[in-house]
Amino acid sequence: MMDGLNEEFERTTLPDRGSAAAPQEAFQGMIADLKASMTRDFICVDAQRNPVAINLDRLGVTALQQVVSFYSRFPARIVEFLKAARDIARENGWRTIDTELTRNIGEELGTESPKPHYDHLVSGTVDAMGFNVEAPSWGESLSTKRFLDGMQQITQDSARPYRALGGIYAAECSAVKELLIVKALLNKISQSQGGTDLSETSELGHFLASHIEEWEVGHEDKLVSAASDHVTSEETRAQFAEGFIAVLGIMDEWWSGVYSEVEACS
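^ thats the sequence. predicted structure below, dont judge the formating
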């Protein structure tokens, strides 16, 4: 799988910012280029190309619920990936990144909410949708396992610390667009069950709104600000970009794989 990611990195060309640009200017330019690449070169967060998003009308309610269950396994482990990236930040003396990832981890575990974010997802789905994402009956997803294994490998890559940093940034940068796709999926389930979209005042509705409008925006912005203090050379920018693109590559494979898995069962 990783050979494929190396090929993905080679195919995804970013503008050459050159070594003469000031470090901050070059870093911010790279971030802009990566964001543009995310929407141009990858399907996972594009609602017009994501295979689940464009086939909501073809999938039955049970298949859509299964997608939600498979998706939930990512937020179930996000703290693990954040901690792995934070460990690398600490090993390298990146204090601002350490501080931001610690703050992010705290939010995920409930410093700004009544309980951990993942617990809100689980209980909110039960209350609003009537199904449990953790139920063993949803079965295993090989595509999800491969994705989570890839996330673990990238965020624990202490030999290439800037790659790990770029990888965890990709998870934060893509989160709002990904959650908008998940929201559309949940609205489709809600419409099938009761004829209306998911209530914004429900626990699950509040969970989604808080992430889309506030928490994930803050995670991305604050991590960019912290990373700009440390990603200051051409070499470190290249490694950061490689990690970013690697994560989006395995996200593409994940969403395509999950669609194939649930389509076969629907």
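The mean pLDDT is 92.
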